[in-house]
Amino acid sequence: QVQLVESGGGLVQAGGSLRLSCAASGIYFRINDMGWYRQAPGKQRELVATITSGGSTNYADPVKGRFTISRDNARERVYLQMNSLKPEDTAVYYCNLVRGSYPRNSWGQGTQVTVSS
């Protein structure tokens, strides 16, 4: 059974940084493409960033140049380094296995990120 556990969220002032972590289990992690999504209050969940099994990355336009996705196959974790945070980054952040830009698994509990102005 696939399990995804996100952590690292919190309250930060605009301009600050956070590093999110996602621990994956129940899968052969290193062969899977992974992604981070977010859902703000009253909005649909949106894709933030993806990283392939080979380490290629893609980012949504609003976060390009500010966020960095990475992975540690030995620890079966995917990370999202978020810098220069803005109030509009406030959302619950989720990780998932992806195929292209589409999620492949059910969602975990997510981790709340709140950016104050």
Concise summary:
With 117 residues, the protein is an all-beta fold.
Keywords, separated by commas or semicolons:
7-stranded mixed beta sheet, 117 residues, mainly beta, 4-stranded antiparallel beta sheet
Strand content range: over 45%
State the oligomer.
single chain
Secondary structure tally: strands: 11
**What is the average of the pLDDT values?**
96
Poorly predicted ranges (pLDDT <50, ≥5 residues)? none
Termini separation:
40 Å
Task: Write down the overall geometry.
Answer: globular
Task: Please trace the helix and strand order, writing H or E for each element.
Answer: EEEEEEEEEEE
Number of helices: 0
Which percent bin holds the helix content? under 10%
Structural class label: mainly beta
Give an overview of the whole structure.
- The chain has 117 residues and is mainly beta.
- The relative contact order is 0.32.
- Strands 2, 4, 5, 6, 9, 10 and 11 form a seven-stranded mixed beta sheet that branches.
- The chain starts with a strand and ends with a strand.
- Helix content is 0%, strand content 52%.
List the helices and strands and how they pair.
Blueprint lengths: L2 E5 L2 E4 L4 E8 L8 E6 L6 E6 L5 E3 L7 E6 L4 E6 L8 E9 L2 E2 L7 E6 L1
Parallel strand pairs: 2-11
Antiparallel strand pairs: 1-3, 3-8, 4-5, 4-9, 5-6, 7-8, 9-10, 9-11
